[in-house]
Write a structure and sequence with these properties.
Layout (H helix, E strand, L loop, with lengths): L3 E4 L17 E2 L8 H15 L2 E4 L6 H14 L4 E4 L5 H14 L6 H12 L3 E6 L12 H6 L6 E7 L3 E5 L20 E6 L6 H10 L4 E3 L6 H5 L4 E7 L3 H9 L3 E3 L6 E3 L19 H9 L2
Parallel strand pairs: 1-2, 1-3, 3-4, 8-9
Antiparallel strand pairs: 5-6, 5-10, 6-7, 8-10, 11-12
Helix pairs in contact: 1-2, 3-4
Amino acid sequence: MPTAIAVTSADLVLPAPDRHTPGAAVLRPPGEAGLEAALAETTALLERHGHLVALVPPWLPPATVRRLHTVRAILETDRIALLDIDLPPLGTAVLARQLRQLTVSDFSPGVLASAARLLSHYIYAGALLGSVAKLDRIPVGLKAHARSWSPSAQFAVLAHPQPHLARLGAAAAPAHSGVLPPGPAFATHLTFARGQLSSDWVTAELAPAWKVQGVMENPLPADSARWWATPKLVEFAAAIPDVSVLYQLVASVRREQCRWCGFELIGDRCGFCAAPLAAPPPEDGAAPRARAATGS
């Protein structure tokens, strides 16, 4: 069986793009399952799949993060990768779907885990917001804060890979240069999810401007309103949909072996033990003290 890809809520599991892509495991938070149940579920996943790669975004409740680390510590296994990926909720779900697509390839669990950081750089995640008054995920100027009090205010916000914020409306038409968030320079599909904001801007304006190859609507993740600091939103994420392109992207990166746990990896950090590829330099004065201690 392929490596299991796990998320922390069912609304982060997007529909499979084809019949070959497996589903994702859902690691239930402490409020939904006790520790014994979590240990049993994780053990069963490891027995069935061999390795488990879980996305652990920083916006998760601290109790959920502690539970994941506690389960891995109790099981005393090096076959669980807990990946710190800083994407908005819908972007996180899109990344999980890409990793699910790649699990049917010949990549080792170590390469698959470390590929998550690489693939995240190619995800364009943002939202159409009715207010940015409480948004603290990206820089928001005083004018944008003030304009948020207008009942008709709407803002185009890109959180990843580069922050971008622009006000939409009569004074700044969506098609005006500089208002639309800068889009990807490669082929993508656009996934979007509606909150409490009635607007077709994402499909009518953004999708054509970004020249996406397809558009798919999904339910809004439960954590999206908290991440964007307003329920008045339409969240979106553009990403590479073709598994062959994803495969070539990952395969083009040189593979190394983790000096700590021995897993294969790409990039500069192991996905399973988080050890950097290169050993950290010695602290200032560490080498002279070592020589003095040995009398050399």
